[in-house]
Amino acid sequence: MSSLGYQTVYSLLATYPGVLCERAFLPDRESLAEYRRSGMSLLSLEGQRPLADFDIIAFSTSFEPDYLNIPLILKLGRIPVWAKERGDTYPLIIAGGAAFMINPEPVADFLDIVCLGEGEEQIPELMKAMMVFDKSRQELLLSLAALPGIYIPSMYHPQYLEERLVAIDIMGAAPKRIKRVCVKLEEYSPARSVILTDNTEFGDMYLIEVSRGCPRGCRFCTSGFIYGHFRQQPYTNIVAAVDEGLAYRNKIGLVGAAVSDYHDIGMLCSYIVARGAKVSVSSLRIDRLDPEMISALVASGHKTIALAPEGGSQRLRDLIRKNLNEDQILDACELLVSRDILNLRLYFIIGLPTETQDDLDELIRLVLAIRSRVLERARLNGRLGEITLSINPFIPKPGTPFQWCGMEPLPSLEKKVKFLEASFRGIANVKLKVEGLRDCYFQALLSRGDRRLAVLLVAMSDGNNFKKAVKTCAFDTDKVVQRTIPTDELLPWDMVVSDGNEILQHEYERAMALEGRR
Description:
Strand order of the largest sheet: 1-2-3-4
Number of domains: 3
Number of helices: 18
Distance between the termini: 47 Å
CATH topology of the largest domain: Transcription Regulator spoIIAA
CATH class of the largest domain: Alpha Beta
Structural class: alpha/beta
Radius of gyration: 24 Å
Helix content: 25-40%
Shape: globular
């Protein structure tokens, strides 16, 4: 419920004439066991109606691991999991959200319709088309395929040879590629909290989106590629949303992939504080630490700020196009500590393409240099803080220049984690936090996978663990995750890459050329 994408779509549907929109959620673990034992159907939250009673079930999914919950929710709702098994009497199954804009294929066979793009324009167009249609499901899907950003999986038939996708047979007039729908933000009110409850993440905040996309274009990250060009809300629109939000919460959370790149970020943060409220932002750009913004964060009581060097060495930061040097990183950390923000969370990626032991050694040296600067400044302040290193393995993402790169094998990543743990063990004020490597492997599998993963997801939704469920697959999951893909090979997600692979391939080749000159 903290997702502004989810809340925006809910608001658009709930206010559309003739539409009744209710919410439903996956039960927690204890309740799930009771559902399975009793055979009870999953009900909507507001009206306590069985899911199968609705005309449409719409999933909003931001992260690939949540794909696992789609077949599970359908089963709990007494709805056939496979789209081909649902006749006209069952609800249409629709999905949208960031995960589907990256790669919807692992769950494509569960879905009737996938929305690729932004809801402000897509939802009204979709509802307008569906509200007046009175023919069969198949005829409806054929008509919807002509709408911008609408992907009808049943109209695309992939052909495989071993681990590779070799062809996609496309029905009738379905487009070869679906262009994602991107809106002009200034034409719409900012996305914001429309349902407020303390019982969610960020429940004490009123969230407002200030921008979409990212101007940086880091080669491993989807934010700079899947959302179209970087767009910012006009300052007056944001201020109006802030004034509205302060009637409900005394803390405003500013949301966006590049919040500190917002053109009026300092003035905006100062305005919120001047209204007697607090402001919160997501991780900050190291080279965009606006003094007004920092003052507002200090006034709001912030004691921890997240920064993302990501590459531990200058070579890797150049490879991923981070456009940061060591002096900028050190100066940013010192600046924050000097302003009484004592705790730093630093995000680093291990297992990036071409990473060597020298790069890990550089990561350690950089962290110790940051620690030295922080301690020096902290002594002047008379207080010590803590540096938390958040270590995450590289996961290749569709729609980025590094989509062709494989993920490093788990044994190698585990060895690197142990090396880092040993290197920082016993160093005061430095704490290491490592994302679960097996969970990351599963995410990479879903990121790079195709429709053959659907049987694995169904098996896991039945309660089987990953290792047992893998036996249902007719292919090697390690190859899906770890294989370097030739740039001329057909990719499962090609039909949802709106601008094609030409720009991505150019950036990939530029990165590999940097490595070749090393």
